[in-house]
Design a protein that fits this description.
19% strand, globular
Length: 148
């Protein structure tokens, strides 16, 4: 199964909009169902996005020391309300059928969402990461906007 919204041209446009060389962004596509990612690679930072069958749900970023934010926080409802799990649980207008049970939300995300990780060398600086994230938010309009 291919990712719903992700296309190679989007990666090129996002990199250019962030002032980066096209080759500066490594793309990791985790189509649904996907495994929870491991730790953020050493020396890397990331912009990531989750999409369902009907829309982009969340775009976020993780700096080079934000391993938990990258790998696990979005799959657990108790971490923070800004995570994908927290946003889905709090969504009073959830469009995806019955709202997933909080105890099952991490599994629901892995089974029903594509995830795309855009990995950058941490030496590029957080401004490049933030610029990439902001451009993707403007372009893709996720249901749960935000930087967390």
């Amino acid at each position: 199964m291919t990712t719903l919204i992700w296309q190679p041209d989007l990666a090129i446009a996002a990199a250019r909009a962030a002032g980066l060389e096209v080759g500066a962004v490594d793309i990791e596509i985790l189509p649904r169902p996907h495994k929870q990612p491991g730790r953020l690679p050493v020396g890397k930072m990331a912009v990531y996005l989750f999409s369902s069958a009907w829309q982009v749900l969340k775009i976020g970023k993780a700096g080079p020391n934000s391993h938990a934010r990258f790998s696990s926080h979005h799959y657990a409802p108790g971490r923070a309300m800004s995570t994908l799990a927290g946003k889905i649980i709090a969504d009073r207008e959830w469009p995806g059928g019955p709202r997933p049970d909080p105890g099952y939300i991490g599994e629901w995300i892995k089974r029903n969402c594509d995830r795309v990780n855009l990995l950058l060398d941490s030496g590029l600086g957080t401004a490049a990461m933030t610029s990439l994230e902001e451009w993707l938010i403007r372009e893709l309009r996720p249901r749960y906007e935000g930087t967390a």
